[in-house]
Amino acid sequence: MGQLSKKTEGHQKLIKLNDELENYFSNTVIPQLFVDADMILRKFTPPAMTHFHLSPADLGNHIDEVSSNIRFPTIIENIKEVIGSSKNLEKDIQTTDKRWYQMNILPYIIRKENRTNGVIITFIDINDRIEVLRGYEKLNKRYENIIYSISHDIKGPLSNIKGLVNILLEISGSEEDTQQLLNMLSLSVDNLQSTVVELSDIRESDTDFAREAERVNFENLIEDAQIALKDRIHETEAQVNCEISETEINLSRKNVRSIIYNLLSNAIKYKAPDRAPAISIKTEKSGAYTLLSVSDNGVGIKEDKKEVIFERNTRLRDDVEGTGLGLFIVKRMVEDAGGKIEVESMLGNGTTFKVFLKGQQ
Q1: pTM
Q2: Domains of the chain with CATH codes
Q3: What are the pLDDT digits (tens) for 263-300?
């Protein structure tokens, strides 16, 4: 009789324990799964139903049959690893629907028998945290680009101003000529000031990563770049022709300006010694992208140097002024905005840079 009483008591404890487990699984706000040692899904919390589209019909099925709902390819291997080692496993995972979770797999150990009889899997949604971290990483890269751009982009306008000042000091022309040079100098100073303000503009709203883009006009930015490079254009007798089919794009104005300035500057800088630069700037639609292409008739690029030119501090010629940062800056700006850049070139016959820009919503 006593033996029967003990069995009844043990059974009641088991029922109570099971009720407590059911109560816990029913009320937790975190997606959790209980998978036994035979890889059978025994329990899951209501949030798991929402996150992973599980239903009561999935209970009692092998985890392999429902793993596609969880959308994490290596979950079965991870469960087996924990059951085999009896050690916790924690990792950040991205499911196939592109959401990020912190996954914790804990061994479910039967203490009396000292064996693992399954696992408890917890999923904590960290998607917002990951997105914020990515946003700050992008912001850090952007500020790096700003530093590189400030050091690089203001050299053209400064050189232009210096050239105009030297001409003023040397000429003994009419008052009208002097006034024209002063007007050009004033315009160059305004352009330099605008460039510095744009590139160094760090606002509190920059932490709201969706507000960076604005509607920019290609023709306006090309004109700005030509004004900044006016001295070099005049000196080399460069001809710049534009075919603007796509007039606007929704992107960072300062970045698009820097891309155009750098490519136009290089087209002039790497001119062929026996002819004046002939430069063509085009915009057109190319699938999901807006294609900005800058072509020249300059010295061209060797085949084995086409990838190297985008690396930091790369200079192909020592006799040409530069820091080797221009194309490095351009590539980073384009790729950070979801675009890509390609180069086509033939040594001695010129180069075309194709910039595939992806407008932001």
Answers
A1: 0.48
A2: 2-125 (3.30.450.20), 130-357 (3.30.565.10)
A3: 998 899 889 999 999 999 999 999 999 999 999 999 99
